[in-house]
Amino acid sequence: MKLLVDTCTFLWLAAADPQLTDTARSACRSPENTVYLSALSAWEIAIKHRLGRLPLPETPVRYVSSRREWLRLEPLAFDEPSAAHDVLLPPLHSDPFDRGLVAQAIVNGLTIVTPDEAISAYPAPVLW
Asked: What are the b/e assignments for 37-61, b being 16+ CB within 10 Å?
């Protein structure tokens, strides 16, 4: 399976947070799955950190890249087809980062790993 972790899931994986479900944790750790972290999540983390809403033990650049590598997640660039796909999505979610992740999942044939119930209303497979 090809999975795309949302920002929350990435942060919970990196911190071994107990809020992460066993299903999500197992899927993200399975060597049978390819798991991606979007550049959108790195951007969201950097913005939240700059605004003081997300304390991190090191700079966002180091934190995201070191945790992504440790978790063996593949980087996923945010590309033009994904950006343009936003216009095709119904206005179910106001968060542009989440809408971008949904668009990336649809364009790239990925399943989104997220606790966000609003995302499950979109035409993209969700795992939680």
From this structure: bbebbbbbbbebbeeeebebeeebe
